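Bug #2210: C-alpha cell dump truncated for Amidohydrolase family protein?
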Amino acid sequence: MYQHDGEDVFVIDAHVHLWDAREDNIVHEGGEEFIQCFYDYHTTFTPEERQWDMSEYRHYGADRMVEDLFGNAAADMGIFQPTYLTDFYDEGFNTTHQNAELATEYPERFVLNGTFDPRDGDDGIEYLEELHETYDIPGVKLYTAEWRGDSKGWRLDDEEAFRFLEKCQELGIENIHPHKGPTIRPLNRDAFDVKDVDDAASSFPELNFVVEHVGLPRLDDFCWIAAQEPNVYGGLAVAAPFAQNRPGKFSEILSELLWWLGEDRVLFGSDYAIWNPDWLVEEVMEAELTPEHRAEYGVEWDLETKRKVMGENAAELYDIDIEEKRRTFQDDEISQQFDLGDHYASEEPAAADD
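Reproduced locally. Full output below:
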C-alpha cells in the first residue's frame, strides 16, 4: 500500500492496458500514427529520466507491467480497459482476451473489463454475451472514435448503442467506461465528444458511466452533464499527469471536478503504459491545490479525499472489499515476488519505494 505522511492509502489504478504495437502487428498506417501519438503524450508528461524508448513502448510485456504497477507498492490493483482497434492492428491493440493473460493469472490484483461496438449488430451482442460468460466482466470500455471500415465512429446515444446498454444491464455489467477526451491521431476528436453521455446516463440510471479523461478538453461540458446525472463519474486518466509538469492546470481540473461532482465520483487512473503509476501516484498524492483555487472553489485535496479518489471510489463501483484485499495481499504471489508483505501486514505499513 502507498504510504502518505504516515497514512496508508489503498490505490486502485482504474485504467491500465497491456498493448502490442509492434510493427508486425500493424496492418494500417493508422496503427503507426496511433502509437506515435501515444508516445508524444508519454514524453510530454513524463519526467525525462522516466521516459521509455520507442522499442519498449511498443511492447513491454506482462512481466514488466506487473513490476511497474506493483513492484514499489505504488498501486495495489489495476482495472483493464481494452482498446481493440482491429482495423489498425492485426491481433488488436489490447483486447479483453489479451488482457486476460494477466487478469486470470492474478485475479485478486486485476479487474478485467470487456467492450462492445454497436456497429457489430447481432454478432456484437453475441460477443458481449461471450465475454460475460467467459470472464464475468463487471464493466466495458467504449471507444466511440474507433474506425470500422468506412465508419469513423459511433454515438453512445444511438438506438443501436442503447440496445447494447440494455444488454449490459440485463447481464449485470454495471460499469460503462466511455473514452471521452483527447483524440489520438488519426481518430476524430468530435467522435470522442462527451455530449452523447447525457442521454445514455439519464436513460440507464442503474448503470455507472465513468467518463474516462473527464471529457478533456471539454471539461466544462463534462462537469455540467455530471452535475445533473448522479451516475456519471470522472476518470482521471490523462488529467493525472498534469500534476507532474502543469501543477496549476492540475489544480484547476481537480478543483472543478471536486466542486461539481464531489469527492465520491472521481477515480484515479494512470492510463498505463502511457504513464507509469510507479511515479505518477506520488505526483498526484503530493499535488496541492493553489490558494486561489482553494479559496474560489472551497474544496480540499486532503487525506480523506485522496483515499476516495485513489481507491475507495473504484472499490465501491467494483464491489471490492479493501480490508479483505489487504489481508489477501499479505502473502499473495506478487507480494512474495516483490517482498511487499510488510506493506499489508501491519497497521503502520512500510513506506513505498521511490
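Output looks complete on our side. The longest helix spans residues 29-44. Marking as cannot-reproduce; reopen if the truncation happens again.
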